[in-house]
Amino acid sequence: MAHLAIELRQPHDAVRIAVEGLGQATAAYGTSRLVARLHTMRARGLALIGDRAGCSKALEDAESILDEATAEQPAQWIAAFDEASLASEAALCFLQLAELDEAERRAREVIRLRSGDRVRSRTFAQLTLANVLVHAGRVDEAAAIGHEACSTTVSLSSARVVHQLRALGGVLSLAPRSRQVSSFLAALAGLSATSGEHNGAVSSWPV
């Protein structure tokens, strides 16, 4: 729910729900990776609010707990959360805080760690990196990465990936039309018109 609140741009709810989750998760065995993820969700919410100090502290908490979780056997109901997962969320935090060098470093770290079969995670990291590069004024580099992500998206069938690609395309359509930008926009136009996008909100949260 904390992650969903972030996607819905409800950062105060995201922080509150993550804190509620921490109170529950720390009382159960084998939940260190979940605790680290909840601290990371706190960091994402705090970044959206603009609380740099709070965000950095939450990321430090997540990193410390994740380091200690290496020898722990996770509970079977815990979703995977590893170094690359944390780096991916941290990259989004630093992008939100306009700390572009650190955001780029974290996004490239995810791409390196996800160079194997975790294609969807790697594609999200590429899109984060592309957005970092756009904010840094490196438009052609961003377009080249977006073009590569378009090629991957055909096999992923991911509405979230398509949504983020189209958002990147909207930004790059306003940039000077270089060869890289034109190639990316052409590849984007070739994607399926069905994105599965939804607009919606929750009137209240169950916690």
Automatic annotation (TrEMBL):
Domain of life: Bacteria
SUPFAM superfamilies: TPR-like (SSF48452)
Protein name: Transcriptional regulator
Originating organism: Amycolatopsis tucumanensis
